[in-house]
Structure formats: structure tokens, C-alpha cells
Design brief:
It comes from Allorhodopirellula solitaria. The protein has about 650 residues and is an alpha/beta fold. The chain contains 19 helices and 20 strands.
């Protein structure tokens, strides 16, 4: 296994200094030969120098400021080399089984490359050879550069004129991690393609950090693309399937879905795991995670370290508040799939249960994650790999642990389909002292103001000293806006999972006349509730029936008073979406039992449409799962400090 380390070295009468391999060409070539023999593919001297250049400034700054955590190897450095101007007259070259000491001129810019079984038990170098080296390796976290024994492949869709500068580095990065099969689809010269219509404006907004190279013709871009692919095939022995596809008026997402579905059958014989990552997304960490995934898992979700303001070339500061409180928000997960277990890859960021023959598992982000950042403007497409900072720079930062350790208060979520009682339950729990805020209404935000403002308000509310906050993922924060599995399984203490029969919900939706609440919408939410029971640990789930709240024979609460916590939306002066006719605000709750509701719904609906029948099936499966894992429970008892009347 290839690791980059900074070793401790104490020559006579000197303090702690850095220990490197000379940058002289003959020793670099020796390193290249050893890397080829051990890893199984060639690595160019340019690759070593490029990686070195990316971290050189960091190491030099650390040396000047006395950052011993870096100088002694307490933090990881990426890939296979590091660079610094070091005051030393001796260095060591430990490439594979070769130990070589040479004299260097003062302040020589040098590179260090090492293999070591001490830091990685899966290293192919023989243990006795490592013992002869007498290396005292620096501390490395969780074997951060371990490779996988599985056959790994990668799929991507590119916009060449905008992303060509990243493609060479992207291929080299994954080749160094053992990926051998690539499927690359090119949409074409999108900024000059009128078929994109208004969607084309999106790509122009990525300037200045995206370089469209308008000084080059389409033929020039195509030639650069061909050169990059041929270089990767020759230098790394990669199998690269390249296809040109037509632009779609609906946008890149449609092309991505078509590309993913078309590759599945072809990939079965070539790879064990197939990933779908953009060319500005680099996987970092311990790839041996793939070797440990159970055989009944069809999809492995990998999440990213979020960086600030991607589109405006903002700083590389982690969005710690979002990451800490809510997990991964909106498309922060990418997928690896076992092709033989996938029937249809209809969504890039999620595969529904009906399209796979196996479970979904989430990769431990402490071991495996990806970095996502486009970097600064690129001015030389062919020499882009030497530009700094590059993607590798941000990928390295993505491995660093979260530095912000601010305490996160307990954070609960109410989750349910529209008209299943989520707002009612939120107000009920709030009135009983379980939380200061409850539901969408008490974010004081209208539906039109959107998710970004909701996230901002959430960030403010969870910092208060109150014990709980109970937002509802129902309208403002539903599955399209939150990376559901990650959010619910890791960042939430309790999930109140509401369920109500789909026939009754559909009757209620029709009565309200909401155009956006279609059968497709209902079925999508019903499926998601089922997926949650697969992913979220059972001890975090509390299953609650709508009738636990409104049926006098089943409920534990009285509703003969107004809920004082309810208020009007300040932006509109009107009631929230969850209480369209004001029954919650006035304390008037529609009581009833399930049997009567079902009978009324059946009479009102008549013949059951196919999608409603599917939603009913999903509902029945949900109840079975809740009962199987013991999470179908009644409402919690009120806090002892509150005097709450009970029936």
C-alpha cells in the first residue's frame, strides 16, 4: 500500500527536521519503477511532482510556524509524495524494499515516497523487507489510503469545454486507487449548444471558477479530450469506454440517468462495484470498506465533506454548521452499486427498492468520503494537472476531522405523508414541553421562501438551550431537500414516524383541493417511509398512528383547548400549510377512528387507481416493519414537571 509520510529524524546537534527523497530525476525514476512493480501500474514522474506541488506550500508554512502535528506526521498527507524546502544534508529513499541514503545540497526541494506495512497491514511489500528498513512510521488514521480487493469502476458524464481541465487529474486519482474500468459520456460543447435553452444559463453562472476555454475551437477541445483519454490508457492501462451523447432540453440530469442505465449490463462482467461521480469529485479514505460490505447490500452511499460556496470560488472552509447539525443536505451523497443487483438506475443519487435486489448501506464517513470542489480558474487545459490548488488539495482537506466541536443539542424529527398528522403531532408535543419549536409552522417560514431560509433558521434554532426542537420533514424539509438516510440515521436522536392509511390520506388531499398533492406524490412519500425503516436504527424510530392522536378510544391526550404555541406566519399573516382551516389553532381536532375513516374514504373514492393500490401496499409493508423491529409504540409520557390532563 502506498502511503505518504513525514518521518522523524534527529541528526546530531540538530532539531527535528523533515526527511525526504531527492527530486533528482534518477531517484524519481527509481520510485516510478518500484511503484509500478508493487501497485501494478505505471506512475509518471510528473504525477509525483504534481502531488508534491499541491502540498508544498502547506508544509513550508508548517515548518515556519512550528506546526509539529504536521512535521511529525500526526495528520495525513495525500497519495504518495510531499514537498518542502528543508535545511538538511541527508535524506532517505524508502521505495518498496530499497533503502538508499544520499547527500543533498542545503535547501534542496525534495520528494518523499514510501511503502510501509507498519501503517497498513494490507501492504504488498514483504514484512521482512519492511523490517530491514527499520522505519518508525508516523501515526496515520484508519489506514487512510488502503486499496480494495474488489474490482472498482467509475461512470461519469462530462461537459468537455467546462470540465476538461479536471478530467486528467480525475482519471489519475482513481487509477492510483485501483480503478481500472471507466465509462465516460460526453454531452458536447454545452455552452455553444442552443438545444439547452434556458438551462445553458446555469453553466455560465459557474464563472469565474469554471474555465470554458472559449479561445479554443470545438475541434481543439475534442483533440485535448482525445489526448487525455489516450494518455490515461497508455500510462495506467485503463479500460475507458467513451461515448458521445446528445444534449437534452431537460438538462444534464436526464442524460445522467440514461447513461447510468445503459452501463449497468455492460459493467456486470468487469466490476464488482460501479460508482457515479462527477469529474470534480474525488473519493478519499479507506477503500477496503468495499471488501467488508455484506453480500445482500446492493447500494453503498458515500457522503461528502461539504465546502463553502462552490459556484463562486469561495473559501475551502467546511460548512460545519450544516454538516454538524443536519448531516448531508441536498445531493451530498453519491452511489456505488453492485451492477448485478440493480435493475434500473433511474435516479443518480438514490435507487428505489423496486429497482434493486438488495439493501442500501451507508459508508462510514470517518473511513470513506469524497471531496467536491472545482477550484480556481484554469488557463492551460493540457497542463492543468500542475495548477494549484487542484481537486486533490480539497480531497486531502476532506479527510481532516471536523474541527468545530460545538455541542449539538438533541434533535428530533417528525416524518409523515401530507395529511397524516405531522403538524398536529408537532404542536401536541410542543405544548407538552417536548420542544420549543414544532413543525414547519414554527420555523416561521412560508412555503414560498424555500429551503435555504429554512436551513438558516434551523441552524439558529438548534443552538438555543432548549432541550428539543421538532421540525417536520413533510413539506419544507422533505426527501428532495435532505439527504434522508444520512440525516436521519446519524444526526437525529428520534424519528417520530407517522402513518395513516393511504385511502384516507388521498380522500383528505382531494377534499383540500391541493393541485400539487397527486397520487404520484403520495406514492413517493409512502415509499420513502418504507426506506426509512430499512436505514434508520430501530431504537431511533417511534411509530405513531394518526389515530393515536385523534381517536378518543386510543389517545392519551385531551384536545379541548387551543394550543398556545401556534402562531400565524409573520411573512403572510396567515396560517401555515399544516393547518389550512385553523382547527389546530382553535383547538378543534377532528376526532374519529380508523374503521370509520376507511369506510368514508372507500365510498368517496370508488374504484382504487393503480398508484393508490401501490401506496396501500407500501403502507402495509411499513406497518409490518415497524411491528417487526418493535418501534410501533404509543406517544411518550409527558415530562414529570408538567401537569398535563390525560384521558
Amino acid at each position: 500500500m502506498l502511503l505518504a509520510l513525514v518521518l522523524r529524524f534527529r541528526p546530531p546537534s540538530s532539531g527535528q527536521v523533515l526527511r525526504f527523497v531527492t527530486r533528482l530525476n534518477r531517484l524519481l525514476m527509481r520510485a516510478v519503477i518500484v511503484i509500478k512493480n508493487v501497485v501494478g501500474h505505471p506512475v509518471s514522474t510528473n504525477t509525483i511532482e504534481r502531488i508534491a506541488l499541491e502540498v508544498g506550500n502547506d508544509l513550508e508554512a508548517a515548518e515556519r510556524s512550528g506546526r509539529q502535528d504536521i512535521l511529525t506526521g500526526e495528520v495525513p498527507v495525500p497519495l504518495l509524495a510531499i514537498l518542502s524546502d528543508a535545511n538538511t544534508s541527508a535524506t532517505a529513499c524508502l521505495c518498496g524494499t530499497i533503502g538508499l541514503r544520499v547527500s543533498l545540497p542545503m535547501r534542496c526541494r525534495v520528494v518523499f515516497v514510501q511503502f510501509s506495512r507498519y501503517s497498513n497491514p494490507n501492504c504488498p511489500v514483504a514484512p521482512e523487507a519492511c523490517a530491514r528498513m527499520k522505519v518508525s512510521p508516523a501515526k496515520m488514521p484508519f489506514g487512510c489510503d488502503r486499496l480494495s480487493r474488489c474490482r472498482l469502476g467509475m461512470l461519469t458524464v462530462i461537459l468537455p469545454r467546462m470540465e476538461l481541465g479536471h478530467l486528467r487529474e480525475w482519471l489519475r486519482h482513481y487509477a492510483a486507487r485501483g480503478f481500472r474500468h471507466f465509462w465516460i459520456f460526453s454531452i458536447g460543447h454545452v455552452v455553444l449548444d442552443q438545444r439547452f435553452g434556458n438551462n445553458g444559463e446555469k453553466y455560465w453562472k459557474k464563472q469565474p471558477e469554471a474555465d470554458y476555454r472559449l479561445d479554443l475551437s470545438n475541434d481543439d477541445i475534442d483533440q485535448c479530450l482525445e489526448n487525455i483519454l489516450e494518455d490515461a490508457r497508455r500510462d495506467f492501462g485503463l479500460s475507458i469506454s467513451f461515448e458521445r451523447v446528445s444534449a437534452n432540453p431537460k438538462g444534464v440530469g436526464t442524460v445522467q440517468k440514461q447513461a447510468a442505465s445503459s452501463v449497468l449490463n455492460r459493467a456486470i462482467s468487469d466490476v464488482d462495484w460501479l460508482g457515479f461521480f462527477d469529474v470534480d469529485e474525488l473519493l478519499v479514505g479507506d477503500l477496503s470498506v468495499f471488501d467488508e460490505v455484506p453480500t445482500d447490500v446492493a447500494v453503498l452511499e458515500v457522503h461528502q465533506r461539504v465546502f463553502e460556496t462552490r459556484w463562486q470560488n469561495g473559501s475551502c472552509r467546511p460548512m460545519s454548521a450544516v454538516h454538524r447539525h443536519y448531516g448531508n443536505v441536498e445531493f451530498n451523497q453519491k452511489l456505488f452499486v453492485r451492477p448485478q443487483l440493480i435493475q434500473n438506475w433511474s435516479r443518480v443519487h438514490a435507487i428505489h427498492a423496486s429497482d434493486r435486489h438488495g439493501k442500501v448501506e451507508i459508508a462510514d464517513s470517518k473511513r470513506l468520503r469524497f471531496g467536491h470542489f472545482r477550484g480556481k480558474p484554469k488557463h492551460k487545459v493540457e497542463t492543468d494537472a500542475h495548477a494549484s490548488p487542484s481537486l486533490e488539495h480539497y480531497a486531502r482537506l476532506a479527510l481532516r476531522p471536523e474541527s468545530d466541536t460545538m455541542h449539538r443539542p438533541p434533535f428530533d424529527v417528525i416524518l409523515g405523508v401530507m395529511r397524516s398528522g405531522s403538524t398536529l403531532l408537532g404542536h401536541l408535543l410542543s405544548s407538552m414541553g417536548y420542544g420549543r419549536y414544532a413543525g414547519e409552522t414554527h420555523t416561521n417560514i412560508s412555503h414560498e421562501r424555500g429551503v435555504q431560509n429554512a436551513i438558516k433558521i434551523i441552524d439558529e434554532k438548534v443552538r438555543v438551550s432548549k432541550p428539543l426542537w421538532l421540525p417536520t420533514i413533510d413539506k419544507v424539509l422533505h426527501r428532495e431537500h435532505v439527504g434522508g438516510a444520512r440525516f436521519l440515521s446519524e444526526r437525529v436522536d428520534t424519528v417520530y414516524l407517522l402513518h395513516r392509511h393511504p385511502m384516507v390520506i388521498w380522500r383528505s388531499l382531494k377534499d383540500t383541493g391541493w393541485e400539487r398533492a397527486t397520487l404520484t406524490y403520495l406514492l413517493s412519500h409512502a415509499r420513502w417511509l418504507n426506506e426509512i425503516t430499512e436505514i434508520v436504527p430501530a431504537h431511533k424510530l417511534i411509530g405513531i398512528s394518526y389515530y393515536d392522536i385523534v381517536d378518543p378510544s386510543r389517545t392519551h391526550r385531551k384536545f379541548n383547548r387551543a394550543l398556545d404555541a401556534y402562531e400565524l406566519l409573520p411573512t403572510t399573516g396567515k396560517r401555515g400549510w399544516g393547518d389550512p382551516i385553523g382547527v389546530i389553532a382553535d383547538g378543534r381536532i377532528r376526532i374519529g377512528c380508523e374503521q370509520e375513516d376507511l369506510a368514508d374514504a372507500a365510498n368517496a373514492i370508488g374504484d382504487i387507481p393503480p398508484e393508490l393500490e401501490q401506496a396501500i401496499t407500501e403502507h402495509e409493508q411499513l406497518i409490518k416493519r415497524l411491528l417487526a423491529n418493535g418501534s410501533e409504540r404509543q406517544l411518550l409520557a409527558p415530562p414529570a414537571s408538567l401537569n398535563i390532563s390525560r384521558t
